[in-house]
Write a structure and sequence with these properties.
The protein is mostly helical. Helices cover 62% and strands 0% of the residues.
């Protein structure tokens, strides 16, 4: 599934979010996921999301710096 390019507003929010400490970014993901209507919930594997967030919290996750991830996700920018 091809995702549309983020709006300018979303890009600004992403830049702010990327500057947060890892634990706060993980908390933000959780809080945002909880705000989604049920029709989006079927695409979200909350158990996997919880597992990944816990690995960030306990330091066992392999993290990718935002600039590298951005290049992978948005190679044309």
């Amino acid at each position: 599934m091809i995702q549309p390019m983020p709006t300018e507003r979303v890009r600004k929010l992403l830049a702010e979010a990327a500057a947060l400490p890892e634990e706060e970014r993980a908390e933000l993901v959780t809080e945002l996921a909880l705000t989604l209507p049920e029709e989006y919930a079927h695409d979200v594997d909350y158990d996997e999301l919880d597992r990944r967030m816990q690995s960030v919290r306990d330091g066992t996750a392999t993290l990718v710096p935002w600039e590298e991830a951005r290049k992978q996700l948005l190679p044309d920018e």
